[in-house]
Write a structure and sequence with these properties.
Shape: globular
Number of strands: 0
Radius of gyration: 21 Å
Structural class: mainly alpha
Helix content: over 70%
Largest sheet: none
Number of helices: 15
Strand content: under 5%
Order of helices and strands: HHHHHHHHHHHHHHH
């Protein structure tokens, strides 16, 4: 079989240049989306672009970013978690009750919940079950446990957690620092370490990974355990901001986390995820959902529709860029 000729002349260089520009534009889409939302907010209300304005607008961005990272780990293994929202709510109820009144018991419950997430990963792999079905069922379990833990809204966040989430560093608002720290830590662990390559490979090419001697069961357990860990951090951060809990407080985080991952450049198949893009996607959704609509005098009921519109626009742009790459 004769290999296809490779163009080396001016035309070949031009095609390679176009391909490089298309890939660069694709990678910059999450950042461009965030910039466009910030520009719209600055145009509608210039005073919002300030230390106090960002602290207020990005108040809930930290728990959203952590939940998005949790979802990202699951998507990296070609799975989908439909229980992360109710899990965040359950963690919030535990944080506002057991972690406040009996810290040791609260820590044990939260560690056990991470262990349950790891077992879910093992169950999905060993029994070859659809993750959507398993996690959908678990969403009802987490919801029921949250209601049993806190039948009505109330409780109180631990004092140390309130102090942490109320931290006000000089010059740069705390939500921005936290977002940068989350993105940097996860990026290094998942994208720059050898085991991070293995974890992503379990979604990219599981057969090749297994032939190389790596355990797919172990990678699935680790990915789901990491999702549980960041889900716990998300629930704790949320209660540290709201100061009290409700069994339904995290229900909207399931769709937000999926949208954040996809908006940040992730894909449902192939293990293609971007920690930095996921955090940027979470920030974009946090800004677009409430501040932008408020400044545009649009009722809060349209928040979900606005997030969906942003996601559709970004995905449409990604499809156009992918066609150009091909």
């Amino acid at each position: 079989m004769t290999a296809a000729p490779v163009e080396t002349g001016p035309r070949g260089s031009s095609e390679r240049g176009k391909l490089a520009r298309a890939r660069l534009l694709r990678s910059l889409l999450p950042a461009l989306s965030l910039v466009l939302v910030l520009l719209a907010i600055a145009w509608l209300n210039p005073r919002a672009i300030s230390y106090f304005g960002f602290s207020l607008m990005l108040n809930l961005a930290i728990p959203i970013a952590l939940a998005t990272i949790a979802q990202m780990f699951v998507i990296a293994g070609n799975e989908l978690d439909l229980s992360i929202g109710t899990f965040v709510g359950f963690v919030g109820c535990v944080t506002a009750t057991w972690l406040k009144d009996a810290p040791l018991v609260g820590v044990v419950i939260l560690l056990a919940s991470i262990g349950v997430y790891a077992l879910l990963g093992a169950l999905i792999h060993l029994r070859n079950l659809p993750s959507i079905v398993v996690t959908l069922g678990m969403s009802f379990v987490w919801q029921g446990l949250a209601i049993l833990t806190l039948p009505k809204p109330g409780g109180k966040a631990p004092d140390w957690l309130l102090s942490l989430m109320a931290f006000k560093p000089p010059l740069v608002p705390f939500p921005i620092i936290a977002a940068l720290l989350i993105a940097a830590v996860v990026y290094f662990g998942l994208m720059r370490t050898s085991y991070g390559v293995i974890l992503r490979g379990s979604g990219g090419n599981a057969a090749a990974l297994e032939r190389a001697g790596w355990s797919l069961l172990k990678t699935k357990i680790v990915l789901f355990a990491l999702a549980g860990l960041f889900g716990v951090l998300s629930g704790m951060a949320l209660i540290g901001i709201t100061t009290s809990a409700d069994a339904n407080i995290g229900n909207g985080y399931t769709l937000l986390s999926i949208a954040g991952v996809i908006l940040g450049g992730g894909e449902f198949v192939g293990g293609r995820v971007s920690p930095i893009g996921a955090v940027i996607g979470a920030l974009t959704l946090a800004l677009a959902a409430s501040p932008l609509l408020t400044f545009m005098h649009i009722p809060p009921d349209w928040q979900v529709a606005a997030n969906g519109a942003i996601l559709i626009i970004v995905l449409a742009a990604r499809v156009l860029i992918s066609r150009r790459e091909r």
